[in-house]
Amino acid sequence: MDTPKDRTSRTINQYEQIASAYAQNIADRAPQKELEKFISQIPSGGKILDVGSAAGRDTRIFYDKGFDVCGIDLSQELIAIARRQNPGIDFFFADVRQLPFSDNIFDGIWSNAVFEHLDKIEMVQSLDEWKRVLKKGGLLYLRTKMGSGSIKISDELSQGQEREFTLLSEEELKKMIQDSGLNLSESYQTKDETRDLTWINTFSKK
Q1: How much is the pLDDT for 30?
Q2: Distance CA 88, CA 72 (A)
């Protein structure tokens, strides 16, 4: 029987194999509107955690804006690329479901296109962890793929690999966030112009 651990191992192995091409292919796909909205709500020089930071694209944007930012990922290859391309930024090999950080230390958490790699139980666990490390009043941005059920997709970012995703409706995601005790302040959908998919974007505060 397939377990969440099996799925996580497959996902990590896939990103290890496609890391270099993946980093190049997502380099110009940052969600600019959401980045600006997030940055506008974080104190100057505030501490940000980029969960599922991949090769550090978004992490670098926060760093260049003067924030105290670090990134985490479970792909050793992507972490290696991030460190090589972004000297001066801390990147850690760490799990979004079990963070190696103390309580109440981040002003913001940026979660862009990583939540869908988890199953629903793990999503709940992750939200609890993210809430734990956020300061009171801290901001969470969470962006994930919209839909229903679990699917396997091979697209231009996958380099022939079949990546697995858990899709959520907007209402499902909103309920998860609210059940975690975070205060949802905004939720909306955006169409991905490069692929046939829709993102759910949420902003929540502790």
Answers
A1: 93
A2: 15
Measure the CA–CA gap between 143 and 146, rounded to whole angstroms: 9
Can you tell me the mean pLDDT for 76-90? 97
| The pair of three-digit structure tokens given for residue 63, joined into one six-digit string | 């760093």
Residues whose CB is less than 8 angstroms from the CB of residue 40 and which lie 6 or more positions away in sequence, other chains included: none
What is the identity of the amino acid at 133? V
CB 161 within 8 A of CB 14: yes
Maximum pairwise Cα distance, the chain: 48
Q: Which domains does the chain have, with CATH numbers?
A: 4-205 (3.40.50.150)
Output the pTM of the full model.
Answer: 0.94
Q: What is the pLDDT of residue 173?
A: 98
CA–CA separation, 39 and 46 (whole Å): 10
Q: Is the dihedral of CA 59, 105, 110, 43 positive or negative?
A: negative
Place of tokens 């209402």: 171
Amino acid letter for position 72: I
Residue-level length of the chain: 206
CA distance readout (Å), 203 to 84, 92, 153, 168, 178? 31, 24, 27, 16, 11
Q: 78, 54 in Cβ contact below 8 A?
A: yes
pLDDT on residue 13: 84
